[in-house]
Design a protein that fits this description.
Blueprint lengths: L9 H14 L5 E5 L4 E5 L1 H7 L1 H8 L6 E4 L4 H13 L7 H13 L3 H14 L5 H10 L6 H10 L1 H5 L9 H9 L8 H19 L3 H7 L1 H4 L9 H6 L9 H11 L28 E12 L13 E4 L8 H6 E7 L3 E8 L8 E11 L7 E9 L8 E7 H6 L10 E13 L1
Parallel strand pairs: 1-3
Antiparallel strand pairs: 1-2, 4-5, 4-11, 6-7, 7-10, 8-9, 8-11
Helix pairs in contact: 1-4, 2-3, 4-5, 5-6, 7-8
């Protein structure tokens, strides 16, 4: 009797897919990635199984065997390819994770997007923040802004020690100069960093000497010159090429407490010093996102109809992965109430983090008088394994109200979730 061959074990399957990834054996498609036109080969069936985007690309009306991908980095595309073939990915740096994150969003791999974000949040270092922010800005990514800006405020001295400071974007420099709290020793130290960045811009852009003193007027107005020590002003500021003679005179007269009629909109008049000693009392990461759903409250006899019906899961503010990163929201309809619950993502949050969720649920009334339910709750990490009830809404309110319904008789619901992750 001939025995049937055993199906390959998962580990063998993984090894086989890894071998295909490493060798490109029998590949039947290729991606030409990035400005250097790096060729990355692949197998249509594997890519198509992983994403409908590739299915349409290779077998749709405009099918093609060679695909030009100009807006992605080759390392990021390879990271995504690794995940497609093996279900795993190993990052070499936060920049590798970011480039993979960009690729995963382009081709809608939500699970990979989460893995990239988790790595970035856990591994990013102060010396990397400035360059990382610039890359995010170049690709119109905002979901890591809070993470990076919090690190700039809390670890300013380490962040500004980066060699990349002289190349960083003006947006980040402005944020630093406008911050009320920074981890530095004094205002003159902040000015030294600003001057180092500004002079690098002057050299890079070959700005004429007679234009240097007025080149950075929009930034100089955030420097608190009048909070500096007199010795610092004499030794450093009055000799700086970033200030006009009029500005230097106005600062000197003010420090000597000599009344002057000189008023300049390029110099801050505040004498209130920054807080250079106290860090943020509660370091936090905040995300706000919106979701629209529709709910059927007419027929609850079938247990399968307890689950809500999604009509629009596109976010109105942040990226769709915000919901995956922090919480997954579940709705259910019961006899007497509608329940909105959240399942916090324990993999994304560290063991010391706690969560505050502010919830606003709005039912659209056809007369313009919406019903709004609001709630705020604090949840410690020890109960993160459990679902969190965000709202319980009596169905009688919806049954009696004149709420807007779509063509299927479903009630429209808009929900807003503001999530703060904090360290205590």
């Amino acid at each position: 009797m001939c025995s049937k061959p055993q199906a390959p074990t998962p580990s063998n399957l993984k090894e086989r897919f890894q071998r295909l990834f490493d060798s490109d054996l029998n590949s039947d498609c290729e991606f030409i990635v990035g400005p250097d036109k790096t060729v990355i080969k692949g197998h249509k069936v594997i890519f198509c199984t992983a994403s409908d985007v590739f299915q349409a690309m290779f077998f749709g009306n405009l099918k093609e065997d060679s695909v030009r991908v100009e807006d992605l980095d080759p390392d990021g595309f390879r990271g995504m390819k690794t995940f497609i073939y093996t279900g795993e990915v190993s990052f070499t740096s936060v920049f590798h994770a970011l480039s993979t994150h960009i690729a995963s969003q382009k081709y809608m791999f939500v699970d990979l997007t989460v893995e990239c974000a988790k790595y970035i949040v856990n591994e990013i270092q102060p010396l990397e923040v400035l360059e990382f922010l610039d890359l995010c800005l170049a690709h119109d990514i905002t979901e890591f802004d809070d993470l990076c800006f919090n690190m700039i405020v809390e670890k300013t001295d380490e962040v500004l020690a980066s060699d990349y400071l002289i190349s960083t974007n003006i947006r980040t420099i402005e944020f630093i100069l406008k911050s009320h709290s920074l981890k530095l020793n004094s205002e003159i130290e902040l000015y030294d960093h600003f001057e180092r960045w500004a002079l690098a811009v002057v050299e890079r852009q070959k700005i004429p000497k007679d234009c240097v003193a007025t080149m950075f007027n929009d930034l100089k107005k955030h420097i608190r010159f009048f909070t500096m020590k007199s010795d610092d002003l004499v030794l450093k500021v009055t000799s700086s090429t970033l200030l006009t003679q009029e500005e230097k005179l106005a600062i000197s007269l003010q420090k000597m407490k000599i009344d002057s009629n000189i008023t300049l909109n390029t110099i801050s008049i505040t004498q209130f010093p920054r807080d250079f000693t106290k860090l943020l009392s509660i370091p936090k990461i905040r995300r706000i996102f919106y979701r629209e759903i529709s709910i059927d409250i007419e027929d609850r006899s079938d247990p399968q109809k307890i689950q809500y019906i999604k009509t629009n899961m596109e976010p109105l503010e942040n990226h769709s992965c915000d919901q995956v990163l922090f919480i997954t929201v579940h709705w259910s309809v019961h006899d007497e109430y509608i329940c909105c619950e959240a399942q916090p993502n324990t993999n994304f949050m560290g063991p010391k983090k706690h969560m505050i969720i502010k919830t606003e649920i709005r039912f659209s009334d056809s007369n313009g008088c919406d019903q709004v339910f609001e709630n705020e709750s604090f949840h410690r990490n020890k109960v993160f394994q459990e679902s969190v009830v965000l709202a319980m809404i009596p169905t009688r309110i919806l049954e009696s109200g004149d709420f807007y319904r779509d063509g299927r008789g479903l009630i429209d619901v808009r929900s807003r979730f503001e999530i703060d992750l904090i360290n205590l």
